[in-house]
Amino acid sequence: MVKTANQTDVGRVRMVNEDRSVVQENLNGFVLAIVADGMGGHQAGDVASQMAVDLIQNKLQNMPPGASVEERKKRVKEAIELANENIFNFASQRENYYGMGTTVVTVLADEHTVVIGHIGDSRAYKFKNGQIEQLTEDHSLVNELVKNGQITKEEATHHPRRNVLTRALGTEPTIEVDIQDLPWTNGELLLICSDGLSSLVSTEQLLTLVNGAEALDDKAKQLVNEALEAGGDDNITVVLVSNAADPEAGEAVHFDGETG
Q: Distances in Å between the alpha carbon of 218 and those of 209, 212, 240?
């Protein structure tokens, strides 16, 4: 049984929450989870992120039960590409929204396989046997600088241009989507988050917090609280997707945090 928990917070600095998330726990036998972190002036960021989660979720509603992994990857990729096209066209026709965009991480899971599509610097992590693994690669300027050996990972966390994306949803007419699939089993956990969490909380802290709390919604709350304690200088969104070891665990946990 796949269970979820979901929480968002505006943080301590921002006036508007431009993060959006959606969790659908029974999509023809799959669990769908999406996190989007919007960007752009005139509150265009929250328009872009809302459009992204709505368009992707709507496009995936006709996912066939028992669809093959290749079919799931194809449909997730197409849904993200469609959202990109729609957001770009919407922004192109409205001066206030010109150049708006959003990150996105889309997860489609059953009890055996996870499909992940992503653009931008929102992330997906996997927790397994007391270890944490970052599954997505940031499409960001600082990540390019790290890969090229120009700065260290430590320098990247404080770099003045750490929020600059090299790829975002909706800013160009077409987009390249990073898409992957991986097996997972009972007891494994996915964390999908905006950079309001990952930029402030180290992977070691993420691991400690996820391993610490028992209940899924408690884990989500503690992750958000940790980012707030670390300064909360951005919106914070956390979605946990758990391949629950106990099939008798009852209904999926769902927690919606305050959005400020």
A: 10, 9, 11
Contact 145, 203 (CB under 8 A): no
Q: What is the pLDDT of residues 113-163, one digit of tens each?
A: 999 999 999 999 999 999 999 999 999 999 999 999 999 888 887 788 888
Whole-number Å distance between alpha carbons of 235 and 210:
20
Read off the tokens for 152: 């260290």
Rounded alpha-carbon distances, angstroms, from residue 96 to 19, 44, 45, 86, 168: 19, 8, 11, 16, 18
Please state the pTM of the whole predicted model: 0.92
d(CA 259, CA 20): 10
How far apart are the C-alpha atoms of 3 and 41, rounded to whole Å? 36
